[in-house]
Amino acid sequence: MPIIDKFKDMGTVVMGKVESGTVREGDSLLVMPNKARVKVLAIYCDEDKATRAGPGENLRVKLSGIEEEDIVSGFILCSVAKPIPTVIEFTAQLQILGLLDNAIFTAGYKAVLHVHSVVEECKIVELLQQIDPKTKKPIKKKEEGSSNRDWWERLV
Length: 156
What we know:
By secondary structure, the chain is mostly beta strands. It is built from no helices and 14 strands. The protein is elongated.
């Protein structure tokens, strides 16, 4: 569950939407990326207290084992058995919808990445291949820059 907000209410409470799996009262979970072990004390779906929740439900989850100051919007509440991996570099397929005048989207380009509740500045490391927008298959020729509406696979 990506954490979108947090607050103190006789303990630490986080808010978010369950993306996959279930969360139950009494579960031991991890707050990633700092790998803090927490225990679920209570679950609230809307204003109602619940004992468990599944995918798609918006929740407030009361936790023990972590302070509110140690949580940042964008952290993930996940299973101890299958912790979400953390990375500093990844490959992404992007569609360019609009660039500033005279801007060229190429290696070294800096942009702002929005994923769930995370907003991070990132830098394009390498252009891997251009993708045909109709077939979604790679185009054989390799170009160095890009214009509006192009599809690219990039190392970010």
